[in-house]
Amino acid sequence: MDRPTLYIANKNYSSWSFRPWMALTGAGIDFEEVLIPFDYPAGNPDIKAISPSGNVPVLQHGALKIWESLAIIEYAAELYPDAGLLPGDRAARAIARSVSMEMLSGFRALRAACPMNIRRPKARIVLPNGVDADVNRIEAIWRGLLQQSGGPFLFGAFTGADAMFAPVVNRFDIYDLVSRDDTLAYMKTMKAHAAWRKWEEAARAERWIVAEDEV
């Protein structure tokens, strides 16, 4: 099987890149990583040269290119069915897809106010309307899934759904948004994952600064 290539952006800031990278790495899938840094304000032409949408992440497998984080995870789950990116139970798979899609398309207030930033020192900010509602909904998703599965991840073992929420774990942490014991326990589990630690180490070593994401 051809080894896929995952094109990503800055590890410190790129939440969209973090999701499929965390999924593939956490599932033990062998892939080549190509990092193309953001180049604000004009954008990096190297990204537009390889991406149909003009954005990353993009997974290239042979001549095929797949863009958007959830589509990449779904493709990898089909390509590597034994990697565990989707739960084994059909009903659980449906719920995993539902919460992943909700993460992909929702929580806009949280995203706008609290950009992912691995290097940011932990500190609170004044939150605009809508952020608390987003936080409460995400906590409710996590709580329900963890109670049903028994943890330590959302569906018991690590899956692509956990990867979809990985940037939120960072946001909850660095902006000091949560205090529930069950939420903090899940965040601790995620941050202890070997894939998370590998991404974090690389992010902290980066020297690029994106002013828009330095809240």
UniProtKB/TrEMBL annotation:
Quote the InterPro entries the UniProt record gives. Answer: Glutathione-S-Trfase_C_sf, Glutathione_S-Trfase, Glutathione_S-Trfase_N, Thioredoxin-like_sf
Q: What keywords sit in the KW lines?
A: Transferase
Q: Which domain of life is it from?
A: Bacteria
Question: What are the recorded Gene Ontology BP terms?
Answer: glutathione metabolic process; L-phenylalanine catabolic process
Keyword Transferase among UniProt keywords: yes
Listed GO molecular functions?
glutathione transferase activity; maleylacetoacetate isomerase activity
Transferase as a keyword? yes
Q: Which residues form a coiled coil?
A: none
Please list the residue ranges annotated as the GST N-terminal domain: 4-84
Q: Which CDD domains match?
A: GST_C_3, GST_N_1
Q: What is this protein called?
A: Glutathione S-transferase
Q: Could you tell me which species this protein originates from?
A: Rhizobium chutanense
